[in-house]
Amino acid sequence: MSDKQLQVQLLRPSTDAWLQCVLDNFNEFLIDHAANERKASSLALSLVAHYPDRTDLVMEMIDLSLEELNHFRQVMRILQAKNLVMPPDEKDPYINQLRSHVRKGAEHYFLDRLLSAAVIEARGEERFRRIAESLAGEELQTFYTTIANSERGHHILFLQLAERYFSQGIVKARLEDWLVIEDAVVEALPLRARLH
Predict the structure, then answer these.
(1) SS3 helix, strand, coil % of the chain, rounded to 5?
(2) Where do runs of H (alpha helix) occur along 87-192?
(3) How far apart are CA 145 and CA 150, in angstroms?
(4) Fold of the domain spanning 16-188
(5) What percentage of the chain carries pLDDT values higher than 70?
(6) Torsion region of 5: left, alpha or beta (phi above 0 gives left; psi -120 to 50 gives alpha)
(7) Fewer Cβ neighbours under 10 Å: the N or C end of the chain?
């Protein structure tokens, strides 16, 4: 592993139009946020199930799953206070389009799972931070600042795990591919009051 830790540098920030859409439809966003926290917890556990022989990854993913589950609980409390109910699960176009770029073959697949997760968490951090800044002085500002900081830790964790199992050169080259992929997916998505 190199002395210099890789970072996810998204190719462009989320648009002001996206942010305004979220702020104008904040209850819709909260419902989607809750769903995303639940799915993030499930993703971490799916990595545990898929790679039980990678014991350091297993322990990291158990911890991550519990943290995401706690976030889910926190958002669900906000929903309940507002008398909002989560609808049945629906597919996330952003996640599905990213997943279509995960390569086949055991090692390629493993690396792409880690790096796509890193990019997703980095986008989550960027968007939660923008929301927190826009909620200045409001009760939820601290909550969304805390969530953004957690997402930062998560994207760094996924990069560290990638560098644990692959050379930094391989990780860096494929991360650059993922940043281009993610940028194209975000650009093509319709404007919605969603995290992604």
Answers:
(1) 75, 0, 25
(2) 93-99, 106-134, 140-165, 168-188
(3) 9
(4) Ferritin (1.20.1260)
(5) 98
(6) beta
(7) N
